Every structure is written in structure tokens, then in C-alpha cells.
Amino acid sequence: MKRFDTLSHIVLLVALAIGTAGVYRSRYDATGQFLVILALTVFYLVWGVIYHHLRGDLEKRLFFEYLILASISTVVGFLVFIR
After folding, report:
1. pTM of the full predicted structure?
2. Which region holds residue 59: left if phi is over 0, alpha if psi is between -120 and 50, else beta?
3. Membrane spanning segments where (predicted)?
4. Contacts of 19 (CB under 8 A, 6+ apart)
């Protein structure tokens, strides 16, 4: 299980690094930046659900926690990047 956790978190960090590079690369296009943030948010939500499902500890409370964080990230991304 330790190896699974390590590999899962490496995948998450690589995806976040790619997303960060995507936001930087589209620095002159606010809509493009928002779309990257939206894609990252969806990835984070899906990653969290799959990760906890495979670990066997996915509960409604945990799903709603990921959903709330994804919603907050989307709203903040919209307010920051869409003018």
C-alpha cells in the first residue's frame, strides 16, 4: 500500500506541475488560463475519487470535501482569470 500511495501522489504532483506550466504558458490568455485551472480542478476531483475508491475508504463526506475544494478553486479561477 505504501508503494501505491507514493505512486499516486507522484502522479498528482506531475499533473499539478503540468497544470502550472500550462497556466504560465497561457499567461497572456485569461480564458486559456481559466480552462487550464478548470481541467486541473476536474483532474483533482477525479483523482481523489479514484484514489480513495482504490484504497477502500471513499465516503460521501470525503467526496463532498473534494467537491467543495473543486468548486472553490473553480470560482477563484473564474474571478481571477476571467475579467
Report:
1. 0.89
2. beta
3. 31-51, 63-82
4. 36, 37, 39, 40, 43
User: What residues contact residue 27 under an 8 Å CB cut-off, 6+ apart?
Assistant: 33
72: left (phi over 0), alpha (psi -120 to 50) or beta: alpha
* Count of structural domains, the chain: 1
* DSSP H stretches of helix in the chain: 2-25, 30-55, 60-81
Among 60, 66, 81, which Cα is nearest to 12's? Answer: 66
Q: Which range of residues forms the domain containing residue 65? A: 2-81
C-alpha cell at 69: 475544494
Per-residue pLDDT of the chain (83 residues; tens, 9 = 90+): 899 999 999 999 999 999 999 999 999 999 999 999 999 999 999 999 999 999 999 999 999 999 999 999 999 999 998 86
